[in-house]
Amino acid sequence: MKNTLTHASEDYLKAIYALSANGAAANTTALAARLGVAPASVTGMLKRLAVTQPPLIVYRKHHGVTLTPAGERAALEIVRHHRLLETYLYRTLGYTWDEVHEEACRLEHVISEDFEERIAEALGHPVRDPHGEPIPTRELTMPPFEAVPLSKLRPGQRAVVQRVHADDPALLRHLQRLGLTPGVGLTVDAYDEFDHNLQIKIDAQADPLVLGTAITDKVFIEVIA
Amino acid sequence: MKNTLTHASEDYLKAIYALSANGAAANTTALAARLGVAPASVTGMLKRLAVTQPPLIVYRKHHGVTLTPAGERAALEIVRHHRLLETYLYRTLGYTWDEVHEEACRLEHVISEDFEERIAEALGHPVRDPHGEPIPTRELTMPPFEAVPLSKLRPGQRAVVQRVHADDPALLRHLQRLGLTPGVGLTVDAYDEFDHNLQIKIDAQADPLVLGTAITDKVFIEVIA
DNA sequence: AAACTGATTTAGACTACCCTAAATCTGATT
DNA sequence: AATCAGATTTAGGGTAGTCTAAATCAGTTT
Ligand SMILES: [Mn+2]
Ligand SMILES: [Mn+2]
Ligand SMILES: [Mn+2]
Ligand SMILES: [Mn+2]
């Protein structure tokens, strides 16, 4: 528990956490893609993470990987660092929401628990990061969060944007230009069942938008009535 | 110039900069002691730093090492990061002057030039860190600084403390308790030529202090008249 | 000028990553 | 039940950094 993890291990744990969020095991190829390394490198790291004391993952060859309770705590620790840092960079240092990810992804591995606590305090213990993603508590529990993507809505439904599940700066800038940010209310006007495009009308915007699933799968909403 | 250095290389360059500040070459043993590694490890790293393109150091076997202009720029870059971070942690996040070093020593290697510029701006482009040490400019020139240690003073002389050249938290807390911090005025009352102790009287303090060279060598002052 | 001593380098080994190319496994299809 | 395709692991190799133990060097002393 007190043995110090490397930056690389921490990024692997974070990726496993993200890819096994739905309870299923994360697989080698998806991890390799997300981490930007070769599949063989992933296999090597999984072997190492499985034999630490205590083990951080359960790894069954050819059948994917899940986090142990210790591994999940380690992952949530890094996610908390990451999202607190994003929030701090955004609110205190004037970063834009497309700039925060890259800086936070490096800082998250080197800040102390003291630093974590001080920025949490300075920010008033925030519950969401600038993208609306929930910040794990100090006790490392993940708050409940919206699981309904905009893509699931159908004409006539109203919703409020809660979180945007994206790191890519270009996509984030695009969403910003569209006005599709947390807190925004919208109504679905039309749905195309062949290309799955959704036509929506954002509150206080004159013109409707037509959005593909590349966007609507990443925007999570809360349905209103 | 754009090739990215490892954290370890950066710490070596910073150490070489510190140990060759007086123009002389830094030697293997001193580097090993300061970096907390074996002398053989230093030799290995020096060989690597000497053959980078461009070379960062001039290394002559058995005769020590100096920084090339490129190496000095790299070192000053890290020193600027370190001291700006110390200043930021101290002023903005409420760290004490004995807590800042350790955190800054990890952060200095991962912050972006953008982060550097933003905290410099937020702090009003400070010229000194919390210990009074000069912060290299954005253009990577080192401002002039006091080279006279308190230990050089003799009875009758008056001085103002300018900087404290120390990282050790215990020593820093001790100096704080003594009231020996940048900006403080003092007068030398007595000098013992055998043990080199100095008796000083700090302005606005009732009782005089007797200090050994472990302290007086680390406190740099400006002589007044 | 040889010997000594402490500093330094070399030799050899280890861990943590990463890679490419070549096996091998799994689950689906015939 | 054999085959096939794609996913995965293994094999083998590389870099960066660390260590200990064994040379070796340089400057000083005899
Ligand atoms: Mn990261
Ligand atoms: Mn933490
Ligand atoms: Mn450092
Ligand atoms: Mn910089």
Description:
- The structure is a homodimer of 225-residue chains.
- The first copy, chain A, is an alpha+beta fold.
- Chain A contains eight helices and seven strands, in the order H-H-H-E-E-H-H-H-E-H-E-E-E-H-E.
- The first copy, chain A, has helices at residues 7-19, 28-35, 39-50, 69-92, 100-107, 113-122, 169-178, 213-216, and strands at 57-59, 65-67, 158-164, 185-191, 198-202, 209-211, 219-224.
- In chain A, strand 5 and strand 6 (209-211) form a beta hairpin.
- The first copy, chain A, starts with 6 loop residues before the first helix and ends with a strand.
- The interface between A and B is medium-sized, with 18 and 18 residues.
- Chain A binds a DNA duplex (30 and 30 nucleotides) through residues 6, 8-9, 27-29, 37-45, 48, 61-63.
Describe the structure concisely for a colleague.
Two copies of one chain form a homodimer. Helix content of chain A is 40%, strand content 15%.
Whole-number radius of gyration of chain A?
Answer: 19 Å
Helix content of chain A: 25-40%
| SS class of chain A | alpha+beta
| Strand/helix succession of chain A | HHHEEHHHEHEEEHE
What is the CATH superfamily classification of the largest domain in chain A? Winged helix-like DNA-binding domain superfamily/Winged helix DNA-binding domain
Oligomer: homodimer
Report low-confidence residues of chain A grouped into runs of 5 or more.
Answer: none
Could you say how many structural domains of chain A there are in total? 2
Largest sheet of chain A: 5 strands, antiparallel
Mean pLDDT of chain A: 96
The molecules bound to the chains, other than polymers, are: manganese (II) ion
Q: Order of strands side by side in the largest beta sheet of chain A?
A: 6-5-4-3-7
State the distance separating the first and last CA atoms of chain A: 45 Å
Report the CATH architecture of the largest domain in chain A: Orthogonal Bundle
